[in-house]
Specification:
Layout: H1 9-21, H2 24-31, H3 35-49, E1 54-57, E2 60-63, H4 65-92, E3 98-104, H5 109-122, E4 127-133, H6 135-143, E5 149-154, E6 162-170, E7 172-177, H7 181-185, H8 191-195, E8 199-202, E9 216-219, H9 222-230, E10 236-239, H10 240-245, E11 252-255, E12 265-272, H11 279-294
Parallel strand pairs: 3-4, 3-5, 8-9
Antiparallel strand pairs: 1-2, 5-12, 6-12, 7-10, 7-11
Helix pairs in contact: 1-2, 1-3, 1-4, 2-3, 5-11
């Protein structure tokens, strides 16, 4: 049985080129084809569709109303065809068609965003989905198999069902509101002075993260903690990039306590035990390491 249409992708490309270039000669030049071939292609496409796509007025071409409608459809079909070709190339190279990634909300935004920008250029055929959350949440996403990999700030013991790789580190410091009594007293403080004021801490399962004060409020969001500190509710140990998120930046004051060691927080890549990392995940780990080290 003969199909209802016989047009080809090449004819659609020629149609779009003529519409964009405003004429057969310019379109042929842009396509690297003979003008006669492009002219024949447009004529055959009009015959296939049963529509006049261009009006010929004094040797000039003007797209018709029907042509305008078909032009939008042609662009969409060509875009879909390109996406199909890219996806086929990805699968032929053994790369995953889909990738789900979890991102710890406390990671620096700029290098993470740059990672995804470069990923779009390097792996255009991958269908990407991301989940963001607290340190606990992104680990659970891996264990629940909602994502294949997660970039997490390490705030506790190794997870029994997860394999891990070191990525980089992010600095953490003690912060307080500029109007808080601790800031007014000076930037150098003792543990005794910190213990006299409310501490805002991260909610970490099975772990009391550097708890100094008997007065503790816990939140599972680093950004909520930063907002509470900025509002003068208490002091907190925060990743430096999270503290800089508060606007204006000078709302938070950095404190120094010689009695407290403030090692940088470790960023790690998590994935389920018994599975292997694909090449895309390995590239993401390497590139995020480079981007974080440049911070």
């Amino acid at each position: 049985m003969k199909p209802d249409f016989e047009w080809t992708l090449d004819r659609l490309r020629h149609f779009v080129a003529v519409a964009d270039c405003g004429g057969m000669t310019a379109a042929a030049r842009s396509l690297g084809r003979a003008q006669s071939a492009v002219s024949m292609s447009i004529a055959l496409l009009e015959a296939d569709l049963g529509l006049e796509l261009f009006e010929r007025i004094n040797r000039n071409l003007q797209i018709t109303p029907a042509g305008e409608v078909m032009l939008a459809e042609a662009r969409e079909l060509l875009a879909q065809a390109q996406a199909l070709d890219i996806r086929a190339q990805v699968l032929a190279r053994g790369q995953p068609a889909k990738l789900a990634v979890a991102i710890d909300e406390a990671l620096p935004c700029v290098p993470v965003a740059q990672l995804f920008v470069e990923m779009a250029e390097r792996h255009p055929g991958i269908e990407l989905s991301t989940l963001c959350g607290s340190s606990n949440e992104v680990a659970n996403y891996v264990m629940q198999q909602r994502v294949q990999i997660a970039f997490q700030i390490d705030r506790g013991a190794a997870l029994p069902d997860c394999a891990q790789h070191f990525v980089s580190t992010v600095p953490q410091k003690i912060y307080v509101s500029q109007n808080h009594p601790l800031a007014v007293a000076g930037h150098n403080v003792s543990c005794k002075a910190l213990a006299a004021h409310r501490q805002i801490a991260a909610q970490i399962d099975g772990m009391d993260e550097s708890i100094i004060s008997p007065q503790v409020w816990r939140f599972d969001s680093s950004y909520m903690i930063a907002d509470m500190v900025a509002a003068g509710v208490g002091w907190a140990i925060l990743p430096e990039n999270v503290a800089h998120y508060v606007r204006p930046v000078h709302q938070l004051v950095e404190l120094h306590c010689e009695e407290m060691v403030m090692p940088p927080l470790v960023v790690r890549l998590l994935w389920r035990q018994g599975t292997s990392l694909n090449e895309t995940a390995k590239w993401m780990q390497l590139r995020l390491t480079q981007l974080l080290n440049e911070e």
